[in-house]
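Here is the promised in-class demo. Please do not try to memorize the tokens; focus on the logic of going from shape to residues.
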């Protein structure tokens, strides 16, 4: 049995249920780094090149936390998770493509890195051979990997179904993996409904965004995110655009935001954007123009390692006050 380390960052927020189930079904122990803390961020900043975006810096901090605790670190080369053709070609951003190399070059004392290339552009059938390759590195045979892969796909499907019911990933993972815990039901109503869009690692990591979702919760805001929308809905938006953004997570944020902008029940959109992110500079501008065109209140929050909670809180409170003003104006 091997101890496989999974950093609690980047793709973790959408794919952890799959990989945790896969490794555990093969009989290995999964060790996840703790949720982001100040010391993880500081360590990441120390280890990473200066001009990297904050999610990449944080990822390095999580890897540093796992070194010495695990036999392997799972850091796949994420290229594509869906078939090309229907929506043009689409990949993860270049930082994801080079992530295993970055980690290897940064940490010379790191344990072996499982850096299997995940590229499903020919279709989901490729997943089985990817899983076989990962299993081989851990000493598992093809039969075991196939069974583990099938189980992991079933769990991933249940995870997506929970997200589509309006749950955030952390809550959905608790339901999947800690059924003994009492999980409170999602909030049914709020004073306003706000769609928070952005990269999963920017909107679901409370440290990176200084607790934005909690702040909204305290303001009696019901939060929607693009990951609560089915692929069918996101694909419908994709078909309406003349071309895609090329980057997978950017596309999801754009399609989700465009969908929410058309909905009367959504009172406003918040885009959480990472400072120093190339793709995001285009996404943010596009969303801002679309929101203005459709008359939907829009707030862009840029995050980096210096983002202060008070600054974000002030902007969120001002945004909510503006929503109240609009509501009162149009209702009276
Ligand atoms: S998409 Fe942007 S924020 Fe995400 S890893 Fe790439 S550069 Fe960083």
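The designed amino acids, position by position:
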């Amino acid at each position: 049995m091997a101890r496989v380390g999974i950093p609690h960052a980047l793709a973790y927020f959408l794919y952890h249920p799959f990989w945790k189930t896969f490794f555990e079904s093969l009989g290995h122990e999964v060790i996840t780094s703790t949720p982001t803390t100040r010391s993880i961020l500081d360590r990441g900043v120390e280890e990473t090149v200066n001009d990297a975006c904050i999610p990449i810096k944080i990822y390095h901090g999580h890897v540093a936390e796992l070194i010495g605790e695990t036999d392997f670190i799972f850091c796949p080369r994420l290229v594509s998770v869906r078939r090309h053709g229907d929506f043009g070609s689409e990949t993860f951003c270049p930082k994801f493509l080079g992530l295993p190399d970055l980690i290897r070059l940064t940490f010379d004392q790191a344990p072996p890195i499982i850096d299997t290339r995940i590229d499903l552009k020919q279709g989901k059938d490729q997943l089985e051979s990817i899983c076989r390759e990962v299993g081989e590195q851990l000493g598992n045979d093809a039969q075991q990997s196939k069974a583990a892969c099938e189980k992991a796909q079933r769990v991933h499907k249940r995870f997506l179904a929970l997200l589509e019911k309006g749950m955030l990933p952390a809550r959905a993972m608790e339901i999947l993996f800690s059924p003994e815990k009492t999980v409170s039901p999602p909030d049914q109503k709020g004073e306003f409904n706000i769609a928070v869009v952005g990269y999963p690692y920017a909107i679901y990591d409370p440290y990176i965004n200084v607790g934005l979702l909690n702040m909204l919760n305290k303001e009696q805001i019901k939060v929607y995110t693009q990951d609560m929308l089915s692929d069918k809905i996101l694909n419908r938006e994709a078909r309406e655009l003349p071309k895609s953004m090329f980057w997978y997570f950017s596309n999801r944020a754009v399609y989700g935001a465009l969908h929410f902008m058309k909905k009367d029940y959504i009172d406003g959109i918040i885009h959480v954007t990472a400072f120093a992110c190339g793709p995001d500079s285009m996404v943010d501008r596009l969303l801002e123009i679309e929101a203005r065109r459709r008359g939907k209140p829009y707030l862009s929050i840029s995050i980096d390692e210096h983002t202060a909670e008070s600054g974000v809180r002030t902007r969120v409170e001002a945004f909510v006050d503006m929503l109240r003003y609009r509501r009162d104006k149009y209702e009276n």
